[in-house]
Amino acid sequence: MPAAAATGPAGPSIARFGLGTAAVGRPGYITLGRDLDLPAERTVEALRERTHALLDAAFAAGVRYFDTARSYGRAEEFLGGWLAARPRAAAESVVGSKWGYTYTADWRASGVPVHEVKEHAVAVFDRQVEETRASLGRLPDVYLVHSVTPDSPALTDPALHERLAGLAAEGVRVGLSTSGPAQGEAVRAALAVEFEGRPLFSAVQSTWNLLETSAAPALAEAHAAGWLVVVKEGMANRRLADRYATGPDTAVLREVAARTGASCDALALAAAAAQPWADLVLSGAATAGQLASNLSAAGLAVAPSDLAGLAVLAEPAEAYWRTRAALPWA
C-alpha cells in the first residue's frame, strides 16, 4: 500500500499520485470543460478507449494507484477490463473503489434529474460489493463508503460495521470518502468507530485543495492514526486549471505558477502533495495532455513561502461547497 514520502528538492515521488476515473467513466460529470475534453460522441466504447489510454499513460509514468466507484458509470468495468488485459499492471497496481451511490443517469450526460442516489444501507453494500468484485475481477485493495457525512448511518449501523469488518478480514482496507463542509467532523467520527474493540476504518479519501482546506486538521489526525489518506478534487473540479483560474481571486496562483514555470494544475496538485498527512493525491484527468500536466507535479517542490502565500486562496467551506453544488452536469 502506498505510504507517504517526504517531498524532496525535486518534488514528491510519482508514487504519491494516483489516477481517478470519475471524469471518464460516464458521459456526464461536473468537471469544467468536458465539452472540450471528451469525444463528441460519448459512447461506451469511446469512453472505454479513453479510460484505457489514460490508464496506460499513467502506468507508464509510474502511477500505481487507481481510483474508481460504483457510481462512476462504467468506470469499474473499464478498469477491470484494463487490468484483465495487462497482467503486469494487475500485479503492480493498487485499486481503490467506493460503494454507497447508485448510478442512475442511464448513460446520459444531461437532462437527468438525478445522476446518482446515495444510500449507506447493508442491502446496498451487499449488492454493490459483489458488483464491484464482478466488474474488477477481484475485490479492490481499498473499499470506501462513498461520501460520508456526519449523519451517515455508515458511522452508527452495527450490522453494516460487521459486514465491513468481514471485508477487512479478507484483506481489504476499509474506509470512507467525505464531502461537504463538515468533512472534518465526519473523519473524526469515523476515527472513533470500533468493531469488537478495534478501529474499523483505516482509509479516507477527502477533498482538499487550495480553495477548500478545512479538512486538513482531521486528515492529519487520520494520518497519525495510521490511515491511508487520499486527496481527491485537488484541482477543485478544474477551477484551478490554467483555463479557468483567470480571475483576480486566483492571481496569486498564476503568479507562483509563472515564477516557477509550472502549470496552475501542477502547482495545485503539488501543494496537495506537500501536505505532510497526504499519502496520495489523485489526478482526475480526462485527456492525455491533462494527465501529463498533472503528473508534472511530481517534479515540483513547492517552497514553504509559496505554500504560505497560496493559503490566501482558501474559501469558507460552506461557500466552496455551494459553488461546487452549482456546477452543471455536462
UniProtKB/TrEMBL annotation:
Signal peptide: none annotated. It comes from the Bacteria. Residues 49-300 form the NADP-dependent oxidoreductase domain. Pfam families: Aldo_ket_red (PF00248). This is Aldo/keto reductase. It comes from Kitasatospora arboriphila.
